[in-house]
Design a protein that fits this description.
By secondary structure, the chain is of the alpha+beta class. It has helices at about 5-20, 25-30, 35-45, 55-60, 70-100, 110-115, 140-145, 185-200, 215-230, 240-250, 260-265, 270-285, 300-310, 330-345, 355-375, 380-395; strands at about 105-110, 130, 150, 160-165, 170-175, 205, 210-215. Helix 10 packs across helix 12, helix 12 crosses helix 13 and helix 13 runs antiparallel to helix 16.
Length: about 400
């Protein structure tokens, strides 16, 4: 492991690698005697990957490194995750049935479809249900859900998916695009071009014993990548999404999917980001080294990328100074980002140039109010953090693939 990672970070990566691949590491056994195991477990919990370590800790962990109370804590969290996984599974099944019986095409994104790829599917933590439907069916689908007892969430944080709440407290999101729009119109054009193909090439797969409609393999990989990029360009993402990438591509049967996926990545202009994610997963999380996923990259870049992932934790919520990435560290870039946020928050009125001064003012007031309400860092620190992360974006090569969600 790279020396710039802490002992705890290095050990967590080794344990995840073991959990995902089944391959043990002598280095992990040695490092567990030096690292602070409590910090390792706490970090795993913050990244929502602690349940993935349960079997490793129970069966192959040196007994003296973890005490009974810590192991019981991991067990309790894992049990809760298993219960929630089945709850989400059956909610997903019922939702798909509701939409399909009404003649609405539907695809399950992430969630159960990704969990099925893990050695123990029930231990992959999921928080909500995400499905993709054609935009032309959105109004009909929303009506069906409301009749079925789902309620539209008061706060909607995106323009191309609609969030609902269930009686059980689990959120459901109806998506009409593979991801929220990016600032780069080339990515958006690519997503629009591929959307209908997703439905044309969908397939059904058994997920924990339930048959669900999923995107075809290349499209599922593309959606996982776009989801990562979307979060990376906001406040970041944690280790769980990298684990998804590992289990997806480590299956022998999907190796023939690589060329088709790379063509889709080129259409959406995201191959550079794909190469960066793949590099990190090969170096640290057990992704097979022979996966032919484009050019290899500088290992130092992999280290810096992984450091950003560790800092973000699950979805960038740990660091109060993390909100978005700007394409370059300059006043022009900050102004451009602010203007884009105005357009995101006011899609109906922003086309009218005469209204821009008023909309800028409203956007600024909302930003400052949310910043105080959510107890984020100082504006100066947020801007400095965004500038620092922009340098990483440029190194990866996706500095012109910018996409943002609302502040």
């Amino acid at each position: 492991m790279n020396t710039r990672l802490s002992k705890e970070q290095s050990l967590l990566c080794m344990l995840l690698c073991q959990a995902l691949t089944g391959e043990s590491s002598r280095e992990a056994v040695l490092l567990c005697r030096q690292a602070d195991i409590k910090k390792v477990l706490q970090a795993a919990q913050k990244h929502k990957v602690l349940p993935l370590l349960y079997e490793v800790l129970c069966e192959r962990w040196p007994g003296e490194a973890i005490d009974a109370a810590e192991l019981k804590w991991v067990e309790n969290i894992s049990r809760t995750t298993v219960r929630q996984s089945y709850h989400l599974l059956f909610l997903t099944r019922d939702l798909v049935k509701l939409l399909e019986e009404a003649g609405i095409p539907v695809l399950v994104l992430k969630g159960c479809g990704v969990a099925e790829l893990y050695p123990v599917p029930e231990l992959r933590k999921s928080g909500d249900v995400d499905v993709l439907i054609p935009g032309s069916c959105a109004e009909a689908a929303a009506g069906l859900l409301e009749k079925a007892g789902f309620s539209v969430k008061e706060d909607q944080h995106a323009n191309h998916h609609l969030a609902f709440g269930s009686k059980s407290g689990i959120d459901l999101e109806l998506h009409t695009m593979l991801a929220e729009p990016f600032q780069d119109v080339r990515i958006n054009r690519g997503m629009e071009q591929l959307l209908s193909r997703c439905f044309d090439e969908k397939g059904y797969r058994e997920c924990l014993g339930v048959r669900l409609p999923l995107p075809g393999e290349p499209y599922q990989a593309l959606q996982l990548l776009l989801h990562m990029l979307q979060h990376f360009l906001r406040a970041g993402f944690g280790l769980k999404l990298l684990c998804d990438w590992v289990v997806f591509w480590n299956r022998q049967e999907v190796q023939e999917t690589v060329p088709a996926f790379l063509k889709l990545a080129d259409i959406c202009q995201v191959r550079d980001f794909s190469e960066a994610v793949t590099m990190v997963c090969k170096e640290y999380l057990g992704l097979r080294k022979d996966l032919p996923m484009g050019r290899s990259r500088d290992r130092k870049l992999a280290e810096e990328f992984l450091q950003d992932v560790f800092a973000a934790e699950e979805f960038g919520k740990a660091d109060k100074d993390r909100m978005v990435i700007v394409q370059e560290n300059s006043l022009r870039a900050y102004i451009k980002e602010f203007h884009y946020q105005m357009k995101l928050n006011h899609p109906r009125t922003s086309p009218y140039v005469i209204l821009w001064p008023a909309l800028w003012l409203v956007t600024l007031v909302v930003f400052l109010r949310n910043n105080r309400k959510l107890k984020r860092g100082r504006v100066k620190d947020i801007l400095r953090n965004a500038g620092n992360r922009s340098r990483l974006l440029q190194q990866i090569g996706v500095d012109k693939q910018g996409g943002r969600n609302r502040l």
